[in-house]
Fold this sequence. Notes:
heterodimer, A: mainly alpha, elongated, B: mainly alpha, two-stranded antiparallel ribbon, 6 strands, globular
Amino acid sequence: MLATYILFFIPLLLFVLAFLYETFLSFTRLYHPNKGRAGYVKATWEFTHTLLVVAVVILLMMFSKYIDQISSAIFMSTFIAAVALGVRAVAYIQIFYVRKKQVIDWLDWGFFVSHVVAAVFFGDHRY
Amino acid sequence: MNIDAAHAARMLMGDSLGFHIIFVLFGLTFPLIVCWFEWLGIRRNDPKLIALAKFWSKIMAVLVITGVISGTVIALQMSLVWPGILKFGGEVIGLPFLFETYAFLIEATFLSLYMATWNNKRVSKRVHLFFGVLMWLGATVSAYAITSVNSWMNLPSGFTYVNGKISNVSVFKAMFSETSIIEFVHSMPGYYLAAALSVAGLYAFKILRTKQKYRELSKHRMDWYVIRTLVLFSACMFVLSGITADITGKYLAKKEAVKLAALELNYETRSNAPLLIGGVAGENNTIKGPHFEIPGALSLLAGNTTDTKVTGLSEFKKEDQPPLYVHTFFDIKMTLITALFAVYLAYFAINKWRRRWLSSTPSLIVLSILGLMSICIVELGWMMTEIGRQPWAVRGYVTVAEALTKTHQVSSFGFIFPLAYLLLFGVTIAAIWRIVQSETSTAKGEK
């Protein structure tokens, strides 16, 4: 059981740290528009989300018998966080791959807000 | 059960999987294509081939972003919307799920290394290629693990079920069942084929945009090389898909007879069963609409002789039968496959005897749309697999209604995800277009 906890908590901890770092960068780049792509992580950092999936899967394995209670408890908050991750991905591609000029506008703020919303709702289990 | 909630949840999952599979097929094939071109470039000492590999690796990275995010959303949906599947079989399919994510972690790690070490003097070309090979291996192992979970839902194995409890769990048996292996070897050539033809189609489209008289000039030599190489590769995958489709047909007849019966609208158990082309299910076991039958062909598919007895839908209770509209999907799929076969024949004939015709506008238009056509074939294949399993989420054990979450209704907000997918798809295409444009302007600048 200890090994399973380690397996669960290590990917989860790595995800939390990496995602908070990304959130921090998405905020600081708002004030350093000339940094361009250097102000944020590269595409290959997307494996941060794989860490989340690893943690989720291990959680499901550990508590598969209680999955309906767990899913009920985290349903709404996780769904909102998943939508925020989707918005974040759209903004990421638009900002760093499609947009020609690196300027700061509402999209960059939306990009930052999507990080915050995802982070808040992944940790919110009031529902 | 709330039918609307179940229907909305099925639609949401269908949308998510339908969107994700496009990026999966590219994510599985691009590492292979990129490594292949890089290997050829190293072997022939050809910088153009290496530049080609580098160019496609940039597109691969963008596709990975989209694939990762849609994959993350699916992982969350699987547990939140369908908790019944994991509650029943978590002990059996939990580990394959985990292997999938760890294999993907390996893929993502080596993708990072691969992208970061392009033209790095401290990393030799062969080591760089080795990173690419490990990335491809990670992707393939990940695909196998997740396919084994799906095939377990199609035909559960690797456990004993007594008095409502699972015991004697063997993850190995579940992961390496006949179903898993057959599903994997049938789907992989399909992914390779679709992605290879999509890339070849893009090059054909590029040539199509130039005037006829310039289409065979040396500046398109590399474009034609890519088209010829990838069409040949996809043709090999087409043959392999045909062989594995035959194996799948025999497997379905033996193990998932109700699915085969629904796909072919075969109502009665009989030998010399015909293959039905066209038509839709009518009332009282009839077939409506224009259709024709190939006598004995279904029996031949099921057991290599026309005497083979094929189980009909009448052997199964009405409530255990999948929706019969899957037959229409099967028809569309077979029509597209037949068209693809005809195009291959025409392509190789023209390539051998009338090579100049290949650069004609009609030929290039056909080559351009082949990728899209083969992506449709992959999508239809998965729709047949998933809808053909209905009403079961885990065949014989958990129905879709039982697997669905009881506490929340997806119908009230599930529409958000398809909207997000549309947006994501749009920006992904725009991003790829920008990479192509910047590559083209760099190439022009160098000249």
